[in-house]
Specification:
heterodimer; A: alpha+beta; Immunoglobulin-like; Cytochrome Bc1 Complex, Chain D, domain 2; 3 domains; 5-stranded mixed beta sheet; 6 helices; about 35% helix; B: about 550 residues; mainly alpha; globular
Chain lengths: ~325, ~550
């Protein structure tokens, strides 16, 4: 169907056909019920139209089994839709372990991206085709939303914590990126594009704009510059817990509870160190809130992550 | 009865005259008129904002208004339409007029509180209009934090105060209805003889009372953070922005049912009257209203599937959202079945009622798309959502409201509106509505985000269609305003029961006397006993005046 203007978005991720399949099922269900209801109403309204002013139709109270019947049919159908939708949703929130990780920082009114190799982009995101990509996203000010219609994906981007979004592009090309959560005056200008490249082209693009330092290396230099290493030594006893092998581990806190050392935990420990104190340590770490930018925190996290993967070279591709 | 007799007989409209007799009235019927005038004003103010939005969106560039103005327009459109038109429309106008009359009472339980509710409503409205006049507010009607509490440079506090104040009007109206329905039913008017309109208003009142305080508290917290920097929602102050969304939607999702349940009540009355049948499955429809009110409180998280809410919570909210769809579906089936073997006439109120079913069905089914987690991730905050809730709230609630206004107009005024024009208006609204909002489903799935002042050129054709539809819709809304006002003077005299309806409100003259019934009514039959004569259903005992 070519009407001179598009009526359906492009399918460019592994998720898109799954979402569209459920959409088509729902459209079919809806067309069926709308047709049924419209037909019944028109049919009854015409067939039983008032023919004489003094008509007194015989009363019908209702029918128990009919009520049960037309309660159970929608119940069954909605449960199918519910399970189907939930399966896709769980998929959307389960990034594969080998995903390429890119940091995203939103602010009024632009998107900033940071690649593990250190490349940075604004309002653009270059990714390789057929490779899972995971975005670690946060905002510097209000709530934004990273929306990729061609991938059928979106995720709110919140200040003060990380949210994740993963995708695997299936087709090289250029796709729109929108901010979907209203964020102020230039909300509709907070757009950009995602450029999906063939792996060879992506490598070429990566080597083109390299800064020389990877995200983890940048993070390591920050780690030295802020004097973190003075307390967080890799070995032996020190005033702060060692960060070697920390990422992804379970940490025991003072109150006897445990947390998983994920990105949000590390971020919180940098900007609000007293929120969670590791068992056996004193709450002496000062806050770095306002001293480190969101992009710098992402770099430090990349560095701490690299400490947990001795078998892999830091920031390997 | 002729013109002369309406003038001569004493009724609630001519019992006394002058502005004071209206501003200090405690008669629920006159208070209904105060609300009717005020919500009509707000409807056309909100409509003016919508007109400007649609004109701006004719072209992809931002050429009619600036981004800042555009953001204020959609915010003021939402705030006005939701808090000052949709929420009060049916309950405060038709509910106020009809709840006492339908159950055979002289007034609501607390007449002075009822008048106070209107003053509170007007006070809240004045704050909000003041905010608009002072330069407006640009947060969206959802007031999401930390944008609203910290970053916006517009009149957030003034607007929030307006919404906060007007909330008390809802609470007091809900309280008044619940007490009235419990304590003031006429002899023989048992619970299961009540019209479904009453059941719907009972369910709505529960939401008014339980939900509104939560939005009030939430908006106070936004104000505290904004004025005093108290850290509640802004993470920079140690707050949690998602907490706001939980609190906001805990009220604002049930508020959708505040808007649609009363419309469902109206539709039940209309379908029964114009097919001269009992509503099929009366008990089921009555309990469906209560089920919607109760389950409606447990689904707020479906506005937050991509907000960072936990996956487990989202799955549970999705499941509950599907469950709340079922009573709505059952109602649609029951209304359709009511037509079966009936005596169906096509008077204007019936056209509105059938239009309601058509639009509500599409609105409800597209709600399933949004409740489905996998699809919601894609269509959340796009025009798909806009289209969906306009089908429910404009297609549903406004059609129900207009149907109800036409149906009870003869009772309220003693005169009939011009039937031909009214049918034409119903048709224009139905067509204009589809043309306005159906293209937005397509736009949304294509990925056009809501609240966009400028948009990619690919989306233009569908936006132009939508704007064209909106201009048809506008004609459809202005027409009733014109001919209803005309009918106040020139309409034919209606008589007590022009539709041959069986509700108790039709057993007293039109317009009714101040005390509604000259003698205390007694009821021996359930609502909608269209197979019987009114004399077999109702008898009138001792004089109401003691």
């Amino acid at each position: 169907m070519n009407l001179g203007f598009p009526l359906f978005p492009e399918q460019a991720s592994t998720m898109a056909p799954k979402v569209d399949a459920l959409l088509f099922f729902l459209v079919a269900v809806s067309v069926f019920f709308v047709t049924l209801i419209f037909f019944m109403i028109i049919f009854f309204a015409v067939k039983y139209r008032r023919r004489a002013e003094d008509e007194r139709p015989r009363p019908i109270e209702g029918a128990f089994w009919l009520e049960v019947f037309w309660s159970l049919i929608p119940f069954g159908l909605t449960m199918v839709i519910f399970v189907w939708g939930a399966i896709i949703f769980v998929d959307i929130f389960s990034p594969p372990n080998d995903a390429l990780e890119i940091g995203i920082v939103g602010r009024q009114w632009m998107w900033k991206a940071q690649h593990p190799e250190g490349q940075r982009e604004i309002n653009e995101l270059h990714v390789p085709v057929r490779q899972p990509v995971k975005l670690m996203m946060t905002s510097e000010d209000v709530i934004h939303d990273f929306f990729l219609p061609a991938f059928r994906l979106k995720q709110d981007v919140l200040p003060g914590r990380y949210t994740r979004l993963w995708f695997e592009a299936t087709k090289a090309g250029v796709y729109p990126l929108y901010c979907a959560e209203y964020c102020g005056t230039q909300h509709s200008g907070m757009t950009g594009r995602v450029v999906v490249l063939e792996p060879a082209d992506f490598e070429k693009w990566l080597s083109g704009g390299a800064t020389g330092m990877s995200m983890a290396e940048l993070g390591e230099s920050l780690f030295q510059r802020f004097g973190c290493a003075a307390c967080h030594r890799a070995t032996g006893t020190s005033q702060g817990p060692s960060l070697a092998g920390l990422f992804g581990k379970t940490v025991e806190l003072q109150q006897g509870i445990t947390v998983t050392a994920d990105e949000n935990y590390i971020r919180e420990s940098i900007v609000d160190p007293r929120a969670k104190i590791v068992a056996g340590y004193q709450p002496i770490m000062p806050t770095f809130k306002g001293l480190v930018s969101e992009e710098a925190i992402l770099q430090i996290i990349a560095y701490i992550k690299s400490l947990s993967a001795p078998e892999r070279k830091p920031a390997q591709r | 009865m002729n013109d002369f007799e309406i003038e001569r007989r004493e009724h609630y409209l001519n019992v006394n005259y002058g502005i004071r007799s209206w501003l200090f009235t405690t008669d629920h019927k006159r208070i209904a008129w105060l609300y009717l005038l005020s919500v009509t004003l707000f409807f056309f103010i909100g409509g003016l904002f919508a007109t400007l939005i649609r004109l701006e969106l004719m072209t992809p560039q931002g050429d009619l208004v600036q981004a800042e103005t555009y953001n204020k327009l959609f915010t003021m459109h939402g705030v006005t339409m939701i808090f000052f038109f949709l929420i009060p429309s049916i309950p405060a106008v038709l509910g106020n007029f009809l709840v006492p009359m339908m159950i055979g009472a002289r007034d609501l339980a607390f007449p002075r509180l009822n008048l106070a509710s209107w003053y509170i409503f007007i006070l809240g409205g004045a704050f909000t209009l003041m905010a608009a006049a002072a330069g407006g507010v640009d947060t969206g009607w959802t007031f999401y934090t930390p944008y609203s509490s910290i970053y916006s440079n517009t009149h957030v506090v003034l607007t929030v105060v307006g919404v906060f104040v007007t909330g008390f009007s809802s609470i007091l109206t809900g309280l008044n209805f619940i007490v009235t329905i419990h304590k003031m039913r006429a002899p023989g008017m048992t619970w299961f003889r009540l019209p479904l309109f009453i059941w719907a208003h009972y369910a709505t009142s529960i939401i008014f009372i339980l939900g509104t305080p939560v939005i009030a508290i939430t908006l106070v917290l936004v104000g505290l953070e904004r004025i005093f920097g108290l850290g509640i929602f802004d993470p920079a102050l140690g707050g949690d922005p998602v907490l706001f969304q939980h609190l906001f939607w805990f009220y604002s999702h049930p508020a959708v049912y505040i808007m649609v349940l009363p419309a469902m009540g109206v539709v039940s009355e209309l379908i029964a009257c114009f097919s001269r049948k009992r509503v099929f499955g009366y008990n089921v429809v009555a309990f469906a209203s209560l089920a919607i009110a109760v389950i409606g409180f447990l689904v707020w998280g479906h506005h937050m599937f991509v907000s960072g809410q936990s996956v487990h919570a989202s799955i549970l909210f999705s499941l509950l959202s599907f469950l709340v769809a079922i009573p709505s579906a059952v109602k649609v089936f029951n209304w359709t079945a009511t037509l079966y073997k009936g005596s169906v006439s096509y008077d204007a109120p019936m056209l509105y009622a059938l239009g309601f079913i058509g639009l509500f069905t599409i609105g409800g089914l597209t709600g399933l798309f949004l409740a489905a987690l996998g699809i919601d991730v894609h269509v959340h905050d796009t025009y798909f959502v806009i289209a969906h809730f306009h089908y429910i709230m404009v297609g549903g609630s406004v059609m129900g409201y207009l149907g109800g206004i036409h149906f009870w107009w003869p009772k309220m005024t003693g005169r009939r509106y011009p039937e031909g024009w009214a049918r034409l208006a119903a048709l224009i609204i139905f067509i204009g509505f589809h043309l306005t909002f159906f293209p937005q489903f397509v736009l949304g799935y294509m990925g056009m985000p809501r609240r966009y002042h400028v948009y990619p050129p690919d989306f233009q054709v569908l936006n132009v269609m939508s704007t064209a539809g909106a201009s048809i819709l506008a004609v459809g809304y202005v027409l009733p305003l014109v001919y209803l006002i005309w009918s106040l003077r020139y309409g034919t005299v209606a008589g007590a029961n022009p539709w041959g309806a069986r509700g108790l409100e039709w057993e007293t003259p039109s317009p009714p006397p101040t005390d509604n019934f000259e003698r205390v009514p007694m009821v021996t039959e359930g609502a909608y006993a269209y197979e019987k004569d009114p004399e077999e259903i109702y008898s009138f005992g001792k004089p109401a005046h003691v």
